[in-house]
Amino acid sequence: MGDLKVIGKRIPKKDAPLKTTGAAVYIQDMKVPGMLYGRILYSKYPHAKIVKIDTSKAEALPGVKVVLTGADVPNNFKFGFIKDNPPLKTGKVLSTRDEVAAVAAISPEIAEEALDLINIEYEELPGIFDPLEAMKEGAAMVHEEFKSNVLKMPWKFVAGDVEAAKKASAFIAEDTFSTQWVTHCCLGTSGCIASLDINNNLTMYSNTQIPSLAQNDFLEALKVFGFKNKRVRVIQCVIGGGFGSKLDTYAYEYIAILLALKARKPVKIVFSREDEFLATSPRQCTITKISQGCDKDGRLTFREMEMILDNGAYTSWGATTPSVMMVPISSLYKVPNIFYRAKCVYTNNTYSQAFRGYGNPQATFAIESNLDQLAEKAGIDPLEIRRINANEPGEVTPQNFKITSCGMKECIDEVVNRLDWKNKSGKHNGRGVGMASLIHVGGAARVYKSDGCGTIIKVDDNGKVDVITGSSEIGQGSETIISQIVAEVLGMSIDDINVINNDTDVCPWDVGAHASRTTFVAGNSALGAAQKIKTQIMEIAAKNLGESPEALEMKDGIIFSVKDKEKNISLGKVLRKVHYTLGGRMLVAEHFYDPPNENFDQNFKGNLSVAYAYGAHGVEVEVDKETGQVKILNYIAAHDVGKALNPMLLEGQIYGGGLMGIGYALGEKMIWDKGYLKNGTFLDYKMPTVQDAPPVQAVIVETDEQAGPFGAKGIGEPGLVPTAPAIANAIYDAVGVRIKDLPITPEKVLAALKEKEKGNP
Amino acid sequence: MKRIITLNVNEKEYEVAVAPNRTLAQVLREDLNLLGTKIGCDMGDCGACTVILDDRPVNSCLVLAVQANERKITTIEGVADGPHLHPVQQAFVEHGAIQCGFCSPGMILSAKSLLEKNSKPTEYEIREALSGNLCRCTGYQKIVEAVKAASQTMKK
User: Do A441 and A457 lie in a common domain?
Assistant: First the structure.
């Protein structure tokens, strides 16, 4: 790769100075002239008939401009993955986050007051809150029209012959694991401003992480509302955290549009923290039955998994997470025979969505916990069973994933060496070590027909570059990575590169910030565009210098002959010559990168990603037998990232993901009790603070990924994928109890220790 | 009934007419247009709205504006010296302590307040001082590193 000047350097995030001075404008800070403030009234009950709604008092309140109920939603409009969710409900409510009425007023205070004046008469109905109950014969239907609480989803993957493999296995371990609801906790809450012009073209100020798809969703909504062939412009403010929460459009956005249509004024809805907990969609809880087997030497023979996912009352991307759960289920370690089936079940709980890892954390918790159980049965060190079965470059997995670069073994070795595994494991003296590995998509994921991203580059008269990208910046640092790539190709400073990434009127199409894909896809797109503009620049400079383009190089804004450096011309001069010449032209290049990955076929086979990200986490814990408290003494997070384009930002992803995973493992849980959220504040929901954050070592393992931009793979999600099982395995090593239900609270550890004393396993 | 109060914000005096139930966070943001003070929960749980009141960091969502009458307030807008970042801000930039940035103003003010009182804090003291500021992006590690680095530069 030669001598890299910008790539691989610890370059600060480009927008950091803006953010450290308080100058960054988030949706909370955004105002447009004439704007009204919208608020939403949520259902009082998890399941009830709406008998009567009286909005007259709210409408009479001075300052209230519009009050809407479900009756005001035109043409039975519904949104979501299978269009089962009306933005305002009529007839029945199916969860306590159901939107029943909305108000637009001249101040947030008046809007809030108006909500209190809306009288709704409900007739409460019995609800279903347990997916197992919902699956029973004769259970009441959450959606009567669907005739079943189990969603019609095709989630099944089969490879080889599991039954035959079971018979041939020397050892089999079988168990059931469960996980809880957790929520994103973005520090900046959700919000939008919907603004319509006289012709009903919509401008949406938004913090979405999927601008192009959101644009499409809003266009469709306008169409159903009776406004065909309109334009939708999505402008992203600075986004106060995403983590998947902004991967779908929500009811509040459609409500803002409806309020704006009726008021003929822009309407802003920004969630309070309580709204954010209640009305954004968490990572769903799961129940997983798993069985894995190996031969006498520890080679895995089969993996069988059945999962039940609580879908909640409506359907968003949560129902599609089994497609990513399949990634570790089919392809984490070499396993020839696989059976997997998942059922998503409607309940009267909150509906689930995407959250960093997209199903992978739940699946990996079961796989990696159960793998330790199998290792124990087989009498093999948990480390050895992982080494024996580790993935390798060149492998084709049962789902037809073509493994290119793979640093899994190196990651495991890093964990082993840095934890001093040999000396610390198997002591059972209150201290213990555990590990778990991960596979995730690392070179995009073809979920839609296109997995692409566009880039436009234009160069101005002074040698500065504008990079107009489809990709979104949600804190991860995409604007910096893209600048580094372009700067490297053009031999420029990243300070001369300006990234424009927040306006669908300007920016090309992109699927969105998901699947850890931005560095890989938007990076490759920017790389292609930079190379094209470089070719143009070199051709023009060559003419001016009387050289051939191949004889030239560009560095620090100067283009020079490699043989004779005296023969040179500044980039700015080249550009001015291009503009200020009769018959002049513009210097613009575009590049659309759509990775050569594959959609799954109907049997869920296909090379979903161009490259796969690997990693291994290892942890040393101390368990207090008196209190059940688990203390993390040391945490190693080793990740195969391809080439680290910016190690500092990359470590930030690992630390951030890692602590999110530690929260998932040890404390975070949304408590939904019979459909009511009991801990919807930061005081009650135990998101880790700086004092809860244990020492984490982020270890970067570099492999050469040929398809990645300068060799890079994705790292957005992997940091939290293997955290929970690594910790659970360490606790088992320390005190001999296995917690199979997340989070691993002191109460659960203590109860398990007591059971163990009684002689129960 | 609105009351007229005087706030000394970032060494500038403001006279504002405020209703008694308005919080300092609201008045800073809505009346003075100092939008760098972020409201992450409005319940005193997350620390995003931290400002320095006299010489103590406070959650400005839990302080009534009238309580701040004739007191000295530092918001994030008053931390940099013109175009020059404060050492804490500079360290946050250079050490990768910023991701989405929503917690950053409050985090920086908590750190600045600590370093003004204790120029050589231990890691424990840093973590204690920042414990009221939630961050979901960074895992806190680089934030703690940044505060350590800032304490080194500020000593010089």
Answer: no
Q: How many distinct structural domains can be found in chain A?
A: 3
CB atoms B136 and A658 under 8 Å: no
User: Do B68 and B104 fall within a single domain?
Assistant: no
Predicted confidence (pLDDT) per residue in A344-398, tens digit: 999 999 999 999 999 999 999 999 999 999 999 999 999 999 999 999 999 999 9
CB-based burial, A139-169: b 16+ in 10 Å, e otherwise? beebbeeeeebebebebebebeebeebbeeb
Whether residues A234 and A295 share a domain: the answer is no
Measuring CA to CA, which residue among B43, B47, B24, B76 is closest to residue B134?
A: B47
Q: If DSSP states are collapsed to H, E and C, what string results for chain B?
A: CCEEEEEEECCEEEEEEECCCCEHHHHHHHHCCCCCCCCCCCCCCCCCCEEEECCEEEECCCCEHHHHCCCEEECHHHCCECCECCHHHHHHHHCCCCCCCCCHHHHHHHHHHHHHHCCCCCHHHHHHHCCCCCCCCCCCHHHHHHHHHHHHHHHC
The domain that holds B10 is classified in CATH as: 3.10.20.30
Provide the ipTM: 0.98
**Domain finish residue from A270, A304, A333:** A270
| Nearest residue of chain B to residue A475 (CA atoms) | B100
pLDDT-based confidence at residue B119 (cuts at 50, 70, 90): very high
Q: Which of B44, B60, B78 is the last residue of a domain?
A: B78
Test the B interface: residue of A106, A109, A187 with most B CBs within 10 Å:
A187
Interface test with B, best of A10, A11, A18, A19 (most B CBs within 10 A): A19
* Higher-scoring residue by pLDDT: B37, A582: B37
Task: Output phi, psi for B154, to 5 deg.
Answer: -70, -25
Q: What is the average pLDDT score of chain A?
A: 97
Same domain, B69 and B96: no
Contacts of B101 in chain A (CB under 8 A): 15-16, 18-20, 24, 238, 240, 475
- Mean pLDDT score across all residues of chain B: 97
Q: In this complex, how many residue pairs, one in chain A and one in chain B, have their CB atoms less than 8 Å apart?
A: 169
Provide the token pair at A301: 């023979």
* Helix axis angle, A647-666 to B141-155, nearest 10°: 130
Number of domains chain B is built from = 2
Are A296 and A373 found together in one domain?
Answer: yes
For residues A606 and A598, the answer to whether their CB atoms sit within 8 Å is: yes
Do A404 and A522 fall into the same domain?
no
Residue ranges making up the domain that contains B11: 3-78
**Residue in A20, A273, A651 closest to B98 by CB:** A20
Out of B79, B101, B134, closest to residue A19 by CB:
B101
Question: Average pLDDT in the A163-182 region?
Answer: 98
Q: What is the pLDDT of residue A556?
A: 87
Q: Are residues B74 and B11 in the same domain?
A: yes
Cα-Cα-Cα-Cα torsion A72, A59, B22, B41, nearest 10 degrees, comes to: -20
Please state the pTM of the whole predicted model. Answer: 0.97
CATH number at residue A69: 3.90.1170.50
Q: Which residue of B has its CA nearest to A655?
A: B139
Residue with tokens 């969502």: B61
Task: Tell whether the model's pLDDT for residue A6 goes beyond 60.
Answer: yes
In tens, the pLDDT along A200-215 reads 999 999 999 999 999 9
Do B118 and B68 share a structural domain? no
8 Å CB contact of B96 and A188: no
Find where tokens 């191949």 sit.
A550
Length of chain A: 761
Count of C-beta atoms within a 10 Å radius of residue A683: 12
Task: Specify whether B103 is located in the same domain as B51.
Answer: no
User: Does residue A497 lie in a domain region?
Assistant: yes
Could you list the residue range(s) of the whole structural domain that residue A566 is in? Answer: 452-593
A46-59 pLDDT, tens digit each? 999 999 999 999 99
